[in-house]
Amino acid sequence: MAAPDPRPAIDAVWRMESAGLIAGLTRMVRDVGLAEDLAQDALVAALERWPVSGIPEHPGAWLMATAKHRAIDWLRRDRLLDRKHQELGARLEAGASEAQDPEEGEIGDNLLRLMFMTCHPVLPAEGRVALTLRLLGGLTTDEIARAFLVPEATVAQRIVRAKKTLAEEKVPFEVPRGAELNARLSSVLEVLYLIFNEGYAATSGDDWVRPALCEDALRLGRVLSELAPQEPEVQGLVSLMELQASRLGARIGPSGEPILLLDQNRSRWDHLLIRRGLAALERAARLGGRGPYVLQASIAACHARAKAAAETDWPRIVALYDDLAERLPTPVVELNRAVAVSMAAGPAAGLELVDRLVTEPSLRNYPLLPSVRADFLKKLGRTDEAREEFRRAALLTRNARERELLLSRAAACGREGPPDPGSEG
Amino acid sequence: MKFMMLVIPKGYEQAKPGTLPDPKMVENMMKYNESLQKAGVLLALDGLHPPSMGARVSFSGGKPRVTDGPFAEAKEVLGGYWMIQVKSKAEAVEWASRAPMSDNEIIEIRQVQDFSDFPPETQKHLGDFKDKQSPPRK
Amino acid sequence: MRVMVLVKATKESEAGQMPGPELLAAMGQYNEELLKAGILLGGDGLASSSQGARVRFEGKTRTVIDGPFAETKELIAGYWIWKVASKQEAIDWLKRAPFDGGTEVELRRIFDLEDFAPAMTPEQRELEQSQMKRLHDRKKNPSP
Fold first, then answer.
1. In terms of CB atoms within 10 Å, which of A276, B25, B100, C81 comes out highest?
2. Strand A398-399 versus strand A204-205 pairing type
3. Which B residues in the span 7-66 are in contact with C, Cβ-Cβ below 8 Å?
């Protein structure tokens, strides 16, 4: 390719090929840290050669062959070869002559194994997120740090520790089977949704949304959906992410202020993503899915199908939350269920449910609890209490935009007055 | 970032109504489409019937004028598109380079405008109409 | 059937100029009507060609040229995808679009599965069917 500055093109190829490369190398050397080092070595070689020779026709195969050759050179130069290195060297030399693209199915299988590895429950959540974004997402340490608003050194440390733990725990490079599969798959889905959520409703920082993170999570989810097409919860998660992502363009106003779902301009929703989300949900249903991600996606689908907020099928959403609360009886689900109940049956009904949650330890620092409670109180005309709750919520959030919104809602609570007309129903 | 990869097939401006793509080409395309899908970057794709089956509408002087295809003066026409989600224009270019195209065919890469790409004033105007329609939320 | 409505570029769109507030509002209203009528399946504006590129294919060679591209008449600035009963229905809707003087729009029919049938082997058709179903599964789910 005759491009003036080859670096962006090479970076692009790296983003496209690195996950498959690292996955293939991990299969060979059985150590994800070593695999990444070898892959980085190959990138260095590419940065030297490709500006002169052009990007090869099969860049993935070129990188793999280069990584293998450099590994062998590196092992030969090391005079203190121990038995393990000798075996490794022999294995590498045996496979080094292959310079064509590996089989389609093989790449997919390796990627799936790598995903299960980087999302292993033995790692802490932030370690799983960092390692997954790094090895599968192709993000640099700096990009991950900026996405999560932590110092680069912190992310680097999380990645180093994660690799060390995987080696120490001798986590095998395989796709789990049988009874283990469900739990391990849950762990993968949890990581992907964590990444997505950080982009969709940022917990800290100045921006309400970080769409690039949503895109990263969505892409990995779609990849997983191709690798595990028979898993309904995978389809459910992809559906949920597509449907939520469809609203990203409507979630923030011109000055970056958050706009709540029911206030959003629905013509700004991305209808292509909605169609994709509904299609994924249908695939999940065909696979018999009724798990938590499928249920959450079904709720998101109810919103997506309503042409206007007033047309939302609230009773159906309540029924779905009832199911979800059975599968996933967490305080957060209960809180969201209360909101749905209030829309279907009035704020008093919602408040009754929320009041049962105020002593929940896990919700103690969760801004959504006081803000939901405040909303119900305001609708019931209890404006002084509403103002207090909005202020409490504003103190709890670490996100600047959310804080501004909550403070303005507090300020909008005038003096104590009659209940809002129509709030009874 | 979303990009359209617009396919400009050579000579398609002259294709007769009912022209269908060559089966071998279809097979190569499907393999390429699968690769986009497996990489998690494919959002949508479509092929278009030739312009001889289409029409043009010209808006000038308040009265729209309709002309049926084909269009004699057209030198390049759209044959189809992919919409992909990637991190950079360079990545879109790399994907386009891997498409199974024939000699002298062109893929044009164009970035899809996000709502947030518009300046705040424009965003405000785009919001104004809808906000007037829905009742204010208390 | 589905159609793609291609809005051709103008000097202004290529210069990155935004339409004025009245036109924007009128467009918003038009889009609402398309949505309500169940016609609108999608649509986007495209950034000017100065932010784009072209890849030319010749044998194994790929030549990349950065935009902008001179032939404004051949470029598109945006598109819609509509679901209509006939070409005439699309034309009727198009005539009502609030476009300014000088805008050119091209209407093209989109290939759907049935159109492909004669050219494909049974295996190809099956694969295409599963691909298309995944990408265009809109029949069972009404357009929002």
1. A276
2. parallel
3. 20-23, 26-27, 30, 33-34, 37, 42, 44-49, 51, 53-62, 64, 66
Whether chain C has a CB inside 8 Å of the CB on B79: the answer is no
pLDDT tier at A149, thresholds 50, 70, 90? confident
Q: Where are the domains of chain C?
A: 2-110, 112-144
Range of the domain at A370: 313-425
Produce one character per residue of C19-41: b if its CB has 16 or more CB atoms within 10 Å, e if not: beeeebbbbbebbbebbeeebbb
Q: According to the model, what pLDDT value does residue A292 have?
A: 96
Cis peptide bond prior to A254, omega within 30° of 0: no
Residue C70 has pLDDT above 50, yes or no: yes
Residue A150 forms part of a structural domain: no
Q: Which of A40, A71, A102 is the last residue of a domain?
A: A102
What proportions of chain A, in percent to the nearest 5, are helix, strand and coil?
Answer: 70, 0, 25
- pTM, two decimal places: 0.88
Is residue A80 in a domain? yes
- What is the gyration radius of the CA atoms in chain B, in angstroms? 19
Q: What is the ipTM of this complex?
A: 0.87
Minimal C-alpha gap between C9 and chain B (Å): 12
> Is C58 in the A-facing interface, judged by CB distances under 8 Å?
no
Give me the CATH number covering residue A407: 1.25.40.10
Q: How much of chain C, in percent, has pLDDT values that exceed 90?
A: 53
Give pLDDT tens digits for A350-404: 999 999 999 999 888 889 999 999 999 999 999 999 999 999 999 999 888 889 9
Q: Split chain B (138 residues) into runs of 10 and give each run's mean pLDDT.
A: 96 91 90 96 96 93 88 91 96 97 94 76 56 38
Residue boundaries of the structural domains of chain B: 2-113
Written as six digits, the tokens of A355 are 């009041």
Give the distance, in angstroms, between the CA of residue A241 and the centroid of all CA atoms in the same chain: 8
Residues 54-113 of B with CB under 8 A from A: 83, 85-91, 93-95, 97
Q: In this predicted structure, what is the pLDDT of residue A139?
A: 94
The domain tally of chain A equals 2
Alpha helices in A136-176 (DSSP H): 141-148, 152-168
Write down which chains contact chain C via at least 3 CB pairs under 8 A.
A, B
Nearest-by-CA chain A residue for C30: A267
Host H or E run for residue C40: strand C40-45
CB A202 within 8 A of CB A148: no
* Helix, strand, or coil (residue B84): strand
Query: Is it the case that residue C49 has pLDDT exceeding 50?
Result: yes
Count the helices and strands in chain C (H runs, E runs). Answer: 5, 6
Assigned token pair, A39: 């892959």
| Domain B2-113 = CATH 3.40.50.1390 | no
Please state the separation of Cα C25 from the chain's center in Å: 21
Band of the pLDDT at A135, cuts 50, 70, 90? very high
Q: Which two tokens stand for residue A409?
A: 């809602």
A44, A38 contact by CB (below 8 A): no
The domain boundary residue, chosen from A102, A136, A162: A102
Which CATH fold topology does C2-110 show?
A: Alpha-Beta Plaits (3.30.70)
Beta bridge partners of C61: C58
Instruction: Compute the half-sphere exposure of residue A405: CA atoms within 13 Å on the CB side of its CA.
Output: 24
What is the tens place of the pLDDT at every residue in A274-308? Answer: 999 999 999 999 999 999 999 999 999 999 999 88
Instruction: Read off the pLDDT band of A103 (50, 70, 90).
Output: low
